[in-house]
Write a structure and sequence with these properties.
Shape: elongated
Structural class: alpha+beta
CATH architecture of the largest domain: Orthogonal Bundle
Number of domains: 2
Distance between the termini: 39 Å
CATH superfamily of the largest domain: Hypothetical protein, domain 2
Number of strands: 7
Radius of gyration: 24 Å
Order of helices and strands: HHHHHHHHHHHHEEEEHEEEHH
Length: 385
């Protein structure tokens, strides 16, 4: 279904559009390799609106790859708190350490070299090559993927091997040797502004004459996206135990949601559709289960108190209702053989630990921390690992 493309005219159309329509973001103002890498990692699966304030604060706190490499992981995660997909922050931290310890602080300048960095794949490597080094490198991300799929009329599932091969081949074909970074930025912005997911602005598109989807009226079915996963309802409960003015928290384990972050004791009480008809009866049963599991994990004698708040949020394929409780412990001695890393922290220390969005909101509710001191918590839904 592909429409023949005159590369020279195609590129000219893109460049003319770029001269009037390129977006201005903080990470585009100084495109050194480190800042490009930080911004591109942040932009993976996160909107530009959410990334803006985080990028500025992150660069202020870690202005160089060396400063990031030397930081403690907990400090890095605290700076990342609220962006979700925390494995990105961990990989970015590992990449900074690799650059400083293995490469003498010098960024790789080849696609293969960049792809050796933790968490860096084909797209991110191409972005650094294109934007930081102004080298011709293909770019296929969410916005260009949609744009290219419509231009080429790709009806196969967009995540299929056939579709991805065609997209990357096209991206390599069209990128010019002269000013490839600006060219790729223009195509990304065109996808975001003009070739939108719903109701694309085809009348404003400078590439409409090349678009197979528009010619065949297939804009609403291309790209052929995989079905969204079904969301499984969960009923979770969390409890903040206090003893002698300190809060009990534990570090989330590898394999758990929010691994490496700190959280209050948290348990799943019901999965699927619990079919709860009597909420008071359900809470009575849930409180008993919560108290039993808390005592089994911590070996603390504690008195579970009233539920103080309820939050609803999403994590990967789960739709969660979270019941939040407090408890008072009569002793502070923690088990020596627990699989979890439990610690008691002061209110000040609680504010310094990296936590999930729900954990932080609960902490603010409990401790009376000034919310202005916390990172912005933009409405990222779902909040992910």
């Amino acid at each position: 279904m592909t429409t023949a493309i005159d590369l020279s005219k195609f590129r000219q159309s893109v460049k003319r559009w770029a001269s009037k329509n390129l977006r201005d973001f903080a990470w585009r103002q100084n495109q050194e390799p480190y800042k490009v890498l930080v911004s591109e990692v942040m932009l993976q699966q996160t909107t530009v609106a959410a990334v803006g304030p985080y990028f500025t604060r992150f660069i202020d706190q870690f202005p160089t790859v060396m400063s990031l490499a030397e930081a403690d992981e907990a400090v890095v995660l605290r700076a990342w708190e609220g962006l979700g997909y925390y494995s990105r922050a961990k990989n970015l931290h590992k990449a900074a350490k690799f650059i400083t310890t293995q490469l003498g602080g010098v960024f790789p300048k080849t696609l293969n070299g960049l792809c050796e960095l933790p968490g860096v794949g084909r797209y991110t490597a191409g972005a650094v090559m294109s934007f930081a080094y102004n080298q011709a490198a293909p770019i296929v991300e969410a916005n260009t993927q949609r744009l290219y799929a419509r231009l080429l009329g790709i009806t196969e599932p967009i995540n299929s091997r056939v579709a991805q091969a065609a997209l990357w081949q096209f991206a390599e074909q069209i990128v010019p040797a002269k000013d490839p970074g600006r060219f790729n930025l223009a195509l990304m912005d065109m996808g975001a502004i003009v070739c939108t997911v719903k109701k694309p602005h085809c009348d404003e598109c400078p590439l409409i004459s090349y678009c197979a989807a528009a010619n065949h009226h297939l804009q609403s079915t291309i790209p052929n996206l995989p079905p969204k996963p079904l969301m499984t309802p969960l009923l979770d409960a969390t409890v903040a135990v206090k003893c002698r003015g300190k809060w009990l928290v534990r570090k989330r384990l590898p394999g758990e949601h929010w691994a490496g972050l700190w959280d209050f004791a948290r348990y799943t009480l019901a999965e699927g559709n619990p079919g709860i008809a009597n909420i008071s009866l359900a809470e009575h049963s849930g409180r008993r289960t919560l108290a039993e599991r808390l005592q089994a994990d911590t070996q603390l004698k504690s008195e579970l108190q009233d539920r103080v708040m309820v939050m609803k949020h999403g994590v990967t394929r789960y739709k969660i209702e979270l019941w939040c409780y407090t408890a008072k412990a009569t002793n502070c001695k923690l088990p020596a053989n627990s699989p979890y890393e439990w610690i008691w922290v002061t209110t000040k220390e609680l504010g310094e630990l990296p936590m999930s969005v729900t954990g932080r909101k609960f902490a603010i509710k409990l401790s009376g921390l000034d919310s202005d001191r916390q990172p912005l918590l933009p409405g990222i839904a779902p909040e992910n690992e």
